[in-house]
Amino acid sequence: MPTVAPLDLEGHVLGAYFVGDVPFFAASSGEIHRLDMGHKTVSVHEGLLSAVVDPATNSLITGGEDGKVNRILADGTVKQIAEAPRKWITAVAAGPSGAIAYVHGKTAAVVTADGKSREFTEARSIEGVAFAPKGMRIGASRYNGVTLHWAGTNGAPVDLEWKGAHTLVTFSPDGRFVVTAMQENALHGWKLDGKPGEEARHMRMSGYPAKIKSLSWSPKGKWLASSGAPAAIVWPFSSKDGPMGKAPLELGTRANILVTSVAFHPAEEVLAIGFIDGMILGVRLADQKEVLLRRPGKGAISAMSWSSSGKQLAFGSEAGDCGVVDISA
């Protein structure tokens, strides 16, 4: 079995990441913990709500209840990027060339590396934000759909409508699809690469027994893994119409034990699956072979990320028990 280096923190761990080769753990209390020649801590927010790694600048982007958006470098240095006084920064995203996006209430803002900022306002609260893989384009998920905005030009926004509350949003790595997690235990997708003037086609992926809180694309975008069931539900996206008319894979099935987090390996079609009881499995898609990466722990797995080498997996839980799994051991 792979070796696990444990780290016990207090309270809910919102994110587990690698910034360069350094494991970072983001606690909802507002503290960022890192394992860099020992356990080091820096307080960055009065309540942390969102965080994401920015590969372009080798840093962690965070948003908090204090209205601040910060960048934390690999050595723990904290730099404030933006501030929205008396607002909660509920979602953040990293884009090309050091650009970042953040959300508060009905507003999404994009800040480029030179410090220039641009805001986009919706009629209803924005729940999630993501950058498209090419160009300065963001998707903002909201009630009744997603709006696509061009952040670098004055291109007209595109509204993708579907009734209901859309919480998470993600683009496929090739930019052909945008997918949201919904309040009603379902995924919804739109196919974007139709002919000019053609309306985006819908994809409905339903039947989940619980809320979908985690999504992960395979390295080349052939698969989209999701939590929210007693197995990782993995949808096929390799054909021109994505998962329409196709059944998903169900990986790591455990009777009545929900999957709470999923993370694809950065180079191979191997999926890390975290469960509500703290257990983590690794599953290879080709033959569905399972490897136990971590035995059950104190709380539900709330976050997982692979190192760039794919030899280590950082994880965190709702109860604060975290760590790094070394699969090369």
TrEMBL record:
<keyword id="KW-0677">Repeat</keyword>
<dbReference type="InterPro" id="IPR011047">
    <property type="entry name" value="Quinoprotein_ADH-like_sf"/>
</dbReference>
<keyword id="KW-0853">WD repeat</keyword>
<protein>
    <submittedName>
        <fullName>WD40 repeat domain-containing protein</fullName>
    </submittedName>
</protein>
<dbReference type="Pfam" id="PF00400">
    <property type="entry name" value="WD40"/>
</dbReference>
<dbReference type="InterPro" id="IPR024977">
    <property type="entry name" value="Apc4-like_WD40_dom"/>
</dbReference>
<dbReference type="InterPro" id="IPR001680">
    <property type="entry name" value="WD40_rpt"/>
</dbReference>
<keyword id="KW-0969">Cilium</keyword>
<keyword id="KW-0966">Cell projection</keyword>
<feature type="domain" description="Anaphase-promoting complex subunit 4-like WD40">
    <location>
        <begin position="263"/>
        <end position="327"/>
    </location>
</feature>
<dbReference type="Pfam" id="PF12894">
    <property type="entry name" value="ANAPC4_WD40"/>
</dbReference>
<dbReference type="InterPro" id="IPR015943">
    <property type="entry name" value="WD40/YVTN_repeat-like_dom_sf"/>
</dbReference>
